[in-house]
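// run 5 | inverse folding | seed 20
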C-alpha cells in the first residue's frame, strides 16, 4: 500500500497550520465538480509570522523559495479543511505564483519552485502541475509571495 499524504507530511516534518480566515470579501476555496479552486495563500508560517519584502531588493532567491514553500504548506492546509482527507487529491492541476519583486528581478520561476518542489515531494507525480510565475509590484501586507491553486479531487 502506498504512503498517505498525511504520512508523507509527517515524514517531511511538516505540521499543517490552522488556515487564516479571509481578510476581505472572498472564501478560502470553492469546489465545483471535481475541481477545487484555492484562493491565494501568502507566505505566513504556523506562528503567524509573515515573510515580507521584495525579491531583488532585500530578499534573495533562497528567501523567496522559502516563502513560496510556506505558501504551499498553507495551500495544503486549505485542501485539508476543504476535503477532510488529503488522499482525495487526484492531481495538482495548476499553480499561479505572484512574487513581490523589484522591477529588474527576473528569477520568478526559481522562487515559485519552492511551492512546486513541495507539491512534488508531498504528492509525488500527482503534484506535477502547470504553472505561472508572475512578478508583482506589491502584494497584500507586503508579503514576499502569494500562490493560488487549482486541484482535481475525488
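// decoded
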Amino acid at each position: 500500500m502506498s504512503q498517505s499524504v498525511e504520512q508523507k507530511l509527517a515524514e517531511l516534518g511538516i505540521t499543517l497550520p490552522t488556515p487564516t480566515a479571509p481578510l476581505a470579501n472572498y472564501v478560502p476555496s470553492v469546489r465545483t465538480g471535481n475541481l477545487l479552486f484555492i484562493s491565494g495563500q501568502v507566505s505566513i508560517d504556523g506562528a503567524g509570522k509573515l515573510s515580507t519584502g521584495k525579491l531583488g531588493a532585500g530578499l534573495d532567491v533562497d528567501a523567496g523559495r522559502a516563502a513560496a514553500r510556506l505558501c504551499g504548506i498553507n495551500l495544503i492546509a486549505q485542501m485539508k479543511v476543504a476535503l477532510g482527507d488529503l488522499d482525495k487529491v487526484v492531481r495538482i492541476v495548476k499553480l499561479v505564483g505572484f512574487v513581490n519583486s523589484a522591477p529588474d528581478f527576473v528569477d520568478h520561476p526559481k522562487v515559485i519552485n519552492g511551492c512546486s518542489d513541495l507539491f512534488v515531494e508531498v504528492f509525488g507525480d500527482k503534484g506535477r502541475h502547470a504553472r505561472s510565475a508572475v512578478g508583482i509590484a506589491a502584494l497584500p501586507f507586503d508579503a514576499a509571495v502569494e500562490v493560488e491553486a487549482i486541484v482535481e479531487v475525488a
